[in-house]
Design a protein that fits this description.
Shape: elongated
CATH class of the largest domain: Alpha Beta
Distance between the termini: 67 Å
Pfam families: KH_dom-like, MMR_HSR1
Strand content: 15-25%
Function: GTPase that plays an essential role in the late steps of ribosome biogenesis.
CATH architecture of the largest domain: 3-Layer(aba) Sandwich
Structural class: alpha/beta
Subunit structure: Associates with the 50S ribosomal subunit.
Strand order of the largest sheet: 2-3-1-4-5-6
CATH superfamily of the largest domain: P-loop containing nucleotide triphosphate hydrolases
Helix content: 25-40%
Number of strands: 15
Family: Belongs to the TRAFAC class TrmE-Era-EngA-EngB-Septin-like GTPase superfamily. EngA (Der) GTPase family.
Keywords: GTP-binding, Nucleotide-binding, Repeat, Ribosome biogenesis
Number of domains: 3
Radius of gyration: 27 Å
Order of helices and strands: EHEEHEHEHEHHEHEEHEHEHEHHEEHE
Length: 465
Amino acid sequence: MLPRVIIIGRPNVGKSTLFNRLVGKRLALVDDQPGVTRDRRFGDVTLAGMRFTVVDTAGWEDEDPSTLPGRMRIQTEVSIEDADAVLFVIDARAGLTPLDTEIANWLRAADVPVILVANKAEGRSGDAGIFESYALGLGDPLGISAEHGEGTADLFEALWPIIGEKSDAADAADAEEIEEDEDDDGLLRGPLKLAIVGRPNAGKSTLINRMLGEDRLLTGPEAGITRDSIAIDWEWTDPQSGDTREIRLIDTAGMRKKRNVVEKLEKLSVADARRAVDFAEVVVLLLDATQGLEHQDLKIASLALEEGRALMIAINKWDVAQEPSKLFNGIRGALDEGLAQVKGLPVLAVSAKTGKGIDPLLSAAFELREAWSKRVSTSALNRWFDDALEANPPPAPGGKRIKLRYITQAGTRPPRFVVFGTRLDMLPTSYERYLVNGIRRELGFGAVPVRVVLKTSKNPYASEQ
C-alpha cells in the first residue's frame, strides 16, 4: 500500500490546486470562492520517483458539527487517522489567521508528521507570511506556488525522510505482481467501475456510504452537497458465491435541468459528473421513490446511453415509497417508452437507509458489465445474421434490392458491429432497429447499448444488378 499524504488547511489556501499539481491532472474542482471541496479526494502521485497517495480535504472551518461546514471539518479530522504525513497549507500572501493557529494546535496534538507549506509564495509577495508562519511551531515552512509549480523539489526533500522507505517498499511489492494481459477476460477480472448518477438529493452519497459501511462521503438534507466526482476503491463480498469482487465506486454531483444551472461552480460540477460517466463501465441512475421518474432522469439516462455505457436504474428510498408496486410498474413503463432505443433496462428497488436491495444491485451490475464486454465469434454471428435475413428480408425500395452480405463484431464495451453490403444508404432505420434488437435478444447482450455501422463494399464488382 502506498504511503498516504493528507493536504489540510483552511478554505481557499490552494489545497485543491496543490492536489492537481501533484497528481498531474485537473481532478479536483478549483474556483476562487472558498469551500469548493467538500469530500475527500484521492490521487496517486509520482514525485521524482517517489510514489504516494495524496488526499485533498475540505477547508477547515470552525463551525458547529451539525452544520454543513462542521460536517466537512469532521471529514477532514477523520482523514489523518491513517495518514503517513500531513501537508498543512497556509496562504503566504494573506499571512496567518486565527484559524491557521487553531489548525496548527490540533495538528501538534496528532501523532503524524506535519510539513508546513506556505502556498502562493511566488515572487516576494509571500515573504512576510512565510516569516510569520514560524510562530506556528511546526518547523521551517516550505514556500511554494502550487499554481505555477514552484517548490516541488523542496516538497520532495521534506517528504522523502518521512515516506521514502514506505514508498520503496510499495514499489518492490508491485514489481512482484504478475501483470495480466488486458484481454476481455482480464478486463472482467479488474475492478468494476460503477458510477452513481441522478438528480440532486436522490441519495447517491448516502447509498455509497451504506455500501461501504462508513460515513465516507458527506451527506445531509441539503441538496447539491456533492460537487466533485469522487472515486472510491472497495471490495464487495457476493453473498451468493462468497467471492470477493473489486469495485471502484464513483459518486457524482446531482444533475439539474440545464436551464437551472447558472452558477459557474455548478456548471463545473455537472461537467465533472459527465466525465465520470465517460470513465465508468456501468452507470446506475438513482431515482427518488418519493418523486418518481421525471424528464430530467430520462435526459441523464440518454446521456449515459449516448456515451455507450451500460445503464441500470435503481429506485432509492423504497422503504418510504407509496404504493410501491404501482410506482415500480409506472417507472418501468415510462422507461420503455422514453428510452425506446434500449428497452428492458434493469430496474431495481433499493434503500440507502436500510441497505435493502444493495447486493442484488451489485450482482446485476457485474452481469451487465459482462454483457457489455461480450464478444461473439464471427461464425456464430453470421449464423444468426442469416437466420435474421431469412425471417425478415430487407426491403427493395423502388424495386432495387438491398443486399446484406455479412456482419462482424468490431469491438466491445460497448458492443460494436459492422454490416457489409450494397445500397445500404437505402436501408430503412426500422430495419436497423430490427437488427439491433435481434442482436440484443438472440445473442445475449440484453439491454446494453449496441452500435451497428453499415458499410458498403468498395469492390466495384460487388454490386448486384
